[in-house]
Design goal:
single chain; about 90 residues; Helix Hairpins; 4 helices; elongated
Length: about 90
């Protein structure tokens, strides 16, 4: 399995399904908060390092696990922010 894909049983995949299953509209304040979330400079730098090592095929097993974690959390954040954008759009 490539590191880009979420395992259906991973915590991030479960959270993503939980967010997608919510029928209630996201409160405006919560949507704005979710859209304000982003990785800090240190994490962005580390993700870039890991991505470069992954492309080169030189990640250790520990680094692969770390990179997978970043990818999973990033995917979850994308789902949450998508839901937030939809909530703000419907309130306009």
């Amino acid at each position: 399995m490539g590191s880009q894909l979420l395992s259906p049983s991973s915590e991030a995949a479960i959270w993503a399904r939980l967010m997608q299953a919510q029928k209630d509209e996201l409160p405006h304040e919560a949507a704005e908060f979710l859209l304000s979330l982003d990785f800090g400079d240190g994490d962005q730098h580390r993700m870039l390092q890991l991505a470069e090592r992954s492309d080169a095929g030189t990640l250790t097993a520990e680094e692969q696990t770390e990179f997978d974690g970043y990818l999973h959390v990033g995917n979850l954040l994308a789902v949450m922010q998508s839901k937030a954008r939809l909530a703000l759009k419907t309130k306009s």
